[in-house]
Amino acid sequence: MFVCESNWQIINSILHTGLNKTPSIAGTVFLWHLERRPQVVMKLIFGILLVGLWTLKASESARPRRDVKEGDLDIYSFNVDCKVTSRYAYTVMVSRVANRATVSKEVTFDVELPKSAFISNFSMTMEGKTYVGVVKKKEEAKQQYDRAVARGESAGLVRVSGRKLEEFKVSVTVAAHSKVTFELTYEELLKRNLGNYDIVIKVSPQQLVKNFKIDVDISESQGISFLDVQGKFLTQELNNAIQKTVTEDKAHISFAPTIDQQRKCPECQESILDGEFIIKYDVKRETSIGNIQIVNGYFVHYFAPIHMPRIPKNVVFVIDRSGSMYGRKIKQTREALLKILQDVNEQDSFGLITFDHSITPWKYKLVKATPTMIAEAKEFVKTIRDSGATNINDAVLEGIQMLRIAKEERQVPKRSLSIIILLTDGDPTSGITDLKQIQSNVKEAIKEQFTLYCLGFGFDVNYNFLEKMALENGGVARRIYEDSDSALQLQNFYEEVASPLLTDVELQYLDNEVNSVTQSKFKFFYNGSEIIVAGQITDNNLDFLTTDIKAESVESALIITTKSPIANKDTISEKQEYIFGDYIERLWAYLTIQQKLSKAVTASKEDKKTLEEEALKLSLSYNFVTPLTSMVVTKPEDERRNQSLVADKPQEGEAHEDERDFSSHRIVGSHRTSGLPMGLPGLSGPSGHVPSRSNVHSYADLLPRPTFESEDSLIRPTFESGMYFSFSYQLKLQ
């Protein structure tokens, strides 16, 4: 029996001394407490050891099993088959695993897929029986899962949101000398970025695989202009395992390294295959109207004109320099700005605003990007230092005012476009801090005249807030990940918007010919990107599809009318032996769902409900796992009961909360055991509390203060906010 407060003081004093003083002094403090209260200190040590052992046991239960002997579980085959038809990618991953042990073993299927992809199928085959995933409305899937948990069953599927990829992970118990086959299918529309399409396949088998193979087939009716295969893990030996065949409109890439080619060293049993296998390619573009394809009553229109003069750009960089940007973030921001300024076109005008609780413009007006002004701006950037709070509202309004004055005083060309690029790493803490009020103020000030792009640096930022504010003002939000290449991420984003070629782009189709058309109006077209519109053909007797293209270029208004023959298109498709005949229909569904979910972010409550209902209907119809649906898989556990798994699709905004909780995993399960989310300086714990650095004297100050309930010498510690354990425990001290 002991008193909570005094014993916590003992722990705190020892930890505080150990972290902030020399080990010898910490030892002296420990001996001082041991001399005066030996029984209490020994009980505490014993209790801490028990908690540590119990913590280790519980955390290990959430990790892949390490007690499996080498060779017991054999991934004897791992195949990836990717078919790309006119930018629409259909990828199937198949993993075959054998349990060669004399007892049952847990087998884990753990792969990563692109964040933009929708899972459309998952199955497990064991002992001649296949268990197939079923896509359901998210609420229904959760109810089914909850019922399973109530029966004492648990889930074992994890989805993690990362930078480019999402993790799909599931485990199942396999009987001795038995095999299991996992099959995962996902679909995505490849986005053209900086002049090429990227097919990204994550390679990480974690062991040598006898039959490892990646097959990629690309079919592009426009013709393939270039193709390249990349991967940081690719050695010269592995490059020899790549076979590439490219014809006028087709390409085949095969990667099938032998066991010896997979080894890290000649005698190693570890695999060198660990990284992204990337195929970059682009298509030929010969006409200004783009490319229209029609198959099975659906059409898709790809529009990316070439040889267009760029439109002058007026850009204001609004840069957060608050105290939370300290260290590497502010350094990388300076590095990125210096590189971006170097690349600003001389036709452009620009401004720089830095902010903490106060607003500091470099100049109070936009300036032309002359060599002299660029050099002066670089010197200003070098002086940027972190300090203070975060006043996002006034900083963005200052940038809007700068653009408005430039337009009203005709400081910029009439045929130019104006954008604001906001970079921040946290929530507003100064000035107006109400998020909805800030969004309203910015929207009212911009009045659809300018475009706002929001870059959220790290995971302390409220991504949902930035996303809505950007979408309401014609832009997009992007997360900048805290990593060694953060400066490069910033530069790449600027490069995407650096060269506008057209504004107010509209692709029009006759109402009596088509319906259910995806987004057809676009504020900008940037060099290296692509506009895609899809829809349904309503007139089965139609011979031609009429299209009007309207846009504004730097020189004049652009108006183009074209008629595309429908019958010939179907014939051409058959001759080209398309991978799957309904690819345009599925492309249309994919694009429609994505756009409806994007519109729902800024829609009114009533409109949001309608948009989500429409997106949900399509998701269920095409068996897509989207933010509105979940895939339910019933997997065999034993003869008495089955286990239900639920696969959700994480969203970028959800990662904000997960990361702020200091937990890297998003688990659909009965308890959380992945990571121990304790608050650290500058990062919040599960409750969202961010400890002030001025109040933190040692890491012991960041630990939750326990309270103890005593009953017949039974100690039950319970923790306040700041940290939680994913298991329950009891300590009985004699």
Defining traits:
VIT; 8-stranded mixed beta sheet; 7-stranded mixed beta sheet; 29% helix; alpha+beta; ITIH; disordered C terminus; vWFA_dom_sf; 734 residues; ITIH3 inhibitor
Question: How would you describe this protein?
Answer:
- The protein is of the alpha+beta class.
- The protein is built from 17 helices and 36 strands.
- The strands form eight sheets. It has an eight-stranded mixed β-sheet. Strands 18, 19, 20, 21, 22, 23 and 24 form a seven-stranded mixed β-sheet that branches. Strands 3-8-7-33 form a four-stranded antiparallel β-sheet.
- Helix 1 packs antiparallel against helix 2, helix 7 packs antiparallel against helix 8 and helix 9 runs parallel beside helix 10.
- The longest helix is centred in the first third of the chain and has 23 residues.
- The chain starts with a helix and ends with a strand.
- The relative contact order is 0.13.
- Pfam families: VIT, VWA.
